[in-house]
Amino acid sequence: MAVPFMFVDGNLTVVLNNKSYQVLPDHINYKMILEKLPTATADELLDIVDVEKAVAAFSDGLVEIKNGQVTYEGEVVHGSISKRILEFMSKGLPFQPLVNFLNNLMENPSMQSQKELYDFLEHEHLPITEDGYFLAYKAVRADYMDKYKGIFDNHVGKVCEMTRSKVDDDRGRGCSNGLHAGALNYVAGYGSLEAGDKIVIVKINPKDVVSVPSDCNFEKLRTCRYEVVGEYQGELLKPLYSSVFSEDDYEDEDEDYDNDYDWGWNDEDDEDAEEAYYDEDDEDDEYDNSYPG
Questions:
Q1: What SS3 state is found at 92?
Q2: What is the pLDDT of residue 97?
Q3: DSSP code of residue 78
């Protein structure tokens, strides 16, 4: 049975389960609703028309959209995450991963760490996974050990972690203790093509992020834990990936996009980083306290 509707000057009114809904051109799912209107059922349309209800229902009321703002437990959420939620909805992507992300982020014991992670995600638009983690890049040695200490194994499937209290939470210090990961630009700035360095994809829980140093334009972070989930085969272009990342995820990338990244190795930058590392003789040698880890 066709859904009753009226369309006047771009404004759509639909009747779903005996309730009238007005859909204006600025509705987040406006184009999608018009496309689905001829064939969709009332329940199918309701899921994309009443987005506020759908978000609140999935999150048990923890996450709500009111007056164009996203809130978590009544508190307005930072703009970058709000934009992600609205972006996912506008593209027909499931918003549940963003709710999972918020739940994980709220488990981070540091309010400052939560705020700094927003800066990182806002700047680089790194993808989120269905279970509410996010993906980032890391450069490692040819043998997959970390570049400067060689004590962390970064083969696919390995989990690298250290005691959270050993990770420097001062974003003002760029070269310090912690497991480092970041955006592709950051990774390309300290690798060595001649040495055979590799790039791996790491999966990070927002609750494990400790700091986002400001010295690299918010392109890197320090965390106490990450999982190596894949080999670099090109820039990650999609905003959402499955919980279990695999090489198959690359097959669905946009073929029109140039996925071959110019690493742009800079020997001078390498020398500066190496010098900074060896200047930190008083740091705890048990952990990778160099720039970067």
A1: coil
A2: 87
A3: P
